[in-house]
Structures are given as C-alpha cells and as structure tokens.
Write the structure tokens for this entry.
Amino acid sequence: MHDLDKWIIDKGVSRKSIANDLKISEATLSRYLSGERIPKPEIMNKIVNFTDGQIKPESFYFFKKEEQSFFKSNFSNKNLLGIDGLNEKEITSLLDRSEHFSRLNENIFNHPKKYNNRTLINLFFEDSTRTKTSFELAAKRLGMNVINMQIETSSIRKGESLIDTAMTLNAMHPDILVIRHSLSGAPYLLADKVNCGVINAGDGQHEHPTQALLDALVIRRRKGKIKGLNVAICGDIAHSRVARSNIKLLSTMGAQVNLIAPKNLMPSGIESLGAKIYNTMKTGLQNVDIVMILRLQHERMQGSFIPSPREYFRFYGLDRDKLAYAKNNALVMHPGPINRGVEIDSELADDIDRTLILEQVELGVAIRMSVIEHLINNKN
Ligand code: NCD
C-alpha cells in the first residue's frame, strides 16, 4: 500500500476529498496510488505541503518502480560515453531505473544478482576512490564478476597502446568496460574497437556522464524536479569534466545553469552550452536552488592558476556568508574529493542539512547499476 493511502486512512478522509483538494480526478489519484503514474512536480509539491512533509516525493518513484515487473526504457544506446546527444526521455529512463536500484540497495538481501555470468572490467588510468569503488559495488550487486585492472603492473607499463590493451581485453569477452583516462576522447576511441558496452568514467576535462546522472538523481529527489531550477556550478570550470556533463544534462532537463569562476578558470565559449557566466559568487548565486562546488584540479593545470589557496577561498570558497546569496533553502553539492578550506568551508561541508555530498556517493551506486543493466540489455 502506498504511504499516501495509509495517510488517507489514518486521517479518516476520503480519496474523493483529497482528489478535489489536489484538483485532479479520483481516477488520476488512484493511478498515483497504484504506482501507475508519478505526479507532476506541482502536484507532488502540493501533496508534500498538505501532508506536512510526511509524504515525500521519493515515495512515488520508489513505489512505481517497485510495482513494475517490466521497465520500459527510452535509453537504447550500447555505450554511455557522454551526456552529449542524450535527450530528456533517455536521461529520465536512466534516472527512473536508478530509483528502483536505490530502493533495493537499502537492504543487502534485495541485491538483484541477476547477471552472475557477466563480467565488468574497470580500466582506470587516473586516480579514483569513489567512482571506481562505485562501479565495482554496482556490478557486484548485480551479481557480475569484476576485474580491476592494475595499470601500474599491466602491459601498459611496457609500452602497449590503449587500443592494443582494449583489443586484448575485448578478446576475453567482457560485457562492460569502464574506462577513466586523462585524454579527452579516449573512451570514444575504445568504443569503436570493442564489442562490449563501454562506460566513460571520466575522460580528461571532457565528460563524466555517470557523475552528472547521479547529481541529477539527487537534485530530483531533493527538489522534486529539475526543470525550472537554477543551478550554480562554481570553481575550476576550465578543467572540469563534471561541469561539462552537468551543464549539458541540466540544460537538457530544463534547468538554468550559472557558471561562477575567476576569469582564468572559465573556458572561453562555454556559454554556447546554454549557461550564464559570472565572475563573482555574489552575482552568480542570486536566486539559486543548488550550488555545485568543484575542486581545483591541479593535475590538469599547466602552471599556477591561483595566487594561493587562502586567497582563492576568500573569493570563491563556499562558506555560509556566500551561501546566503543563494535561496534560503539552497542545497550544496560536490562531486568529491573535497579540499576543505580551499573550495568549501570545512564546517559547511559537514552540515547534513545543507550539503548532499554523501547522498551523491550513495546514489552513485544506484545510477551505475541502472547504466550497467541498460547496456547489457541493449546489447542483447
Ligand atoms: C571528479 C572527477 O574525477 O572528475 N571526481 C569524481 O569522479 N568523483 C571530480 C574531481 O576529481 O574533482
């Protein structure tokens, strides 16, 4: 039974009067309660307000997917190389399916070990904690075998090219290859040469699609929608693949994106992706619902871009004073790893009422389960 149904019974009111209050038909309300349909954001907000927050937007997503035995998806690609080229329906399918996995992830006994004859290879040419672990956990929860390539001890150290490594791995018939590489475009090159599904886990400063998807999932849950929101992305935009994937995804889903960075960390021409450009936190954070903070990505910088970390924090580090320029209920996100006292104030980073960093990590696993499942099914 849906939480809202229980609430209706508890309060001793009728479905009819609730439907009237929501200005919908009783039949539509029944569809929400049976999981057949998800309420539109305006109606969802009304339900949340009128139950004093007791019914949360996620109850509708969870319920819908839990009840569904067959999930019809609009995402039919064999690889996930970037957000570029994906439309709203494809993105929504990947997000909706993640809600199902997120629900299952709450209980270890629910893990759907449905792909126990399948293999995923993690090929990380750059450092990673959360993304690599997240892909490994996602695959294992789907029952897959996971191989983590040790680049330091592999033939790559003997001068083998990326393509030759990929062809060698491909000959062993994995189902999914997850690649992170410092060169923009490396996953595209690879996808051209192998039969298995390829997932881009970050290529240089180009794209990081699963990060943008998990960010979107967190936003949709917390705000009940993406369309119409104002999202600011602040910091080292120039070297950030997270920023590029997020700008594309958020614009496609109908959000307005503000980019905030010092001039030398703002890439020229980036406004062509549909974002507005600001050079101060005060101007860029006005009326913003979500503030995404980026790390200074020194590993991709040639030379020094900031006078000192202290100076950077003074002007661009997010603290409570700067956050006050945004909406009162604005929430803070960061893809991690965070550098405390450089791009974000340490105390603010730990405030779970304002900051969603750990929720991003948690939902990252569900997003990756959804992407992996889609690629396996699409290849079939
Ligand atoms: C990001 C990345 O690697 O691009 N991190 C991540 O995937 N969680 C951002 C960063 O390294 O700053």
Remarks:
- The first helix runs from residue 3 to 11.
